[in-house]
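Weekly modeling sync, notes
Attendees: AB, CL, MP (scribe)

Item 1: holo prediction request
CL wants a bound-state model with flavin mononucleotide before deciding which constructs to order. AB pointed out that an apo prediction alone won't tell us much about the pocket. Agreed to run with the ligand included and paste results into these notes for async review.

Input as submitted:
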Amino acid sequence: MKEISPEIFYVGVDDYETDLFESMWPLPEGVSYNAYIVKGKEKVAAIDTVKIPFVEEYLEKVEKVTSFDKIDYIILNHMEPDHTGSLLKLLEKAPQAKIYCSKKAVAMVKSLFNLEENVHGVEEAEELDLGDKKLIFYMDPLVHWPETMVTYEAESKTLFSSDAFGSFKGLKEGITDEEVDYHGYIDETIRYFSNIVSKYTKYVKKALDKLLPIEIKIIAPAHGLIWKKDVKHIVSLYQQLADMQGEKSILVLWGSMYGNTKLVIDAVVEGIEEAGLKVTILDVARDHLSYQIKETAKNQGIILGFPTYDGEEFPPVSFYLDMMRRKNIRNRIVGFFGSSLWSGRALKKAADKLKTLDWQIVEPLLEFRGKPAKELLSQAKELGKQVAQKVKEL
Ligand SMILES: Cc1cc2nc3c(=O)[nH]c(=O)nc-3n(C[C@H](O)[C@H](O)[C@H](O)COP(=O)(O)O)c2cc1C
Ligand SMILES: [Fe+2]
Ligand SMILES: [Fe+2]
């Protein structure tokens, strides 16, 4: 329990136990479920709760800040169970509290908790007076679910932003960017954005357009670091991510069953490095998809190397391509290389899938039979150089 601003308390918890977030995304450094208590002179509001396994720790923290009978409102910004899981347990302790959520969330509160009474669906920009403090609610649909809203506290100028601006990684080293160096959280912010939020980039942009004209001194998301010192930094990172602007660097994502495709990687990397760009290399079959998606969001240039398999791309690449579509990762510059033995064609099929996401294909697609010949290796180096060059020119 920590005060992030006068009479605004952090009562969230760290989760270092769950292996996979949403049963999909690895959590090597954990994740936090951020919840807050806002104490006005007259009224007290709890903002979000935590995932149910951590309810005891959460309630202990709440009780250190306020007695339960003083809680007037429970604000639910987003209905995903990582934030609403402890609602019923909190209501057992604070049955007088009125639930405030978006109008779209009202039906979800009924479906998930069978609650109808004492539930208020708020209007866009509706205000809730707590005395000296005032909460204002803004709808933030599809960041990350259709019912999501954010809550702004007007006196401290704190934006409780739900999943927006959030990241993976627990907060045991400190909860704000005043306490810890934010650089250690950036990659986990990009991974959170690209894995969880990026499908709805259009809505992230809409939300930014709506919220950024408001003066914001503190961003208090539902996961990860609370931003006080460098609010501008997280905002500009989010703008870049929402605009699908990667860094001027290259991801080489490769797979190979018998080592023929693998023999080409060094030449590709040599070409990229000669052009002066940094390169990240991931194995599509062994490095987790979560990091493949994150590195694709992070790098503007992508080079994919994989063999033909049953007339199509090597299967882990299919999963990756499908995720590019589902997570809506757009506007990359992409090159291809890979081995086949009989009729090939996997590279062309994969390239066609990416065209629909506005990925710019760098020709030629370097498909070769069996083991790469010397001539192929110099073409591969040229491919690396060309992709890097196009990224540099952006
Ligand atoms: C299960 C399997 C399916 C394959 N399907 C095709 C195919 O449909 N078309 C083709 O041209 N080659 C196909 N091949 C041949 C591989 O593309 C070829 O062996 C290639 O050199 C493997 O590259 P790698 O050493 O990088 O794994 C297949 C190989 C395997 C093992
Ligand atoms: Fe969510
Ligand atoms: Fe969440």
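Recorded for review: The chain has twelve helices and 24 strands.
Action items: CL to compare against the apo run; MP to circulate these notes.
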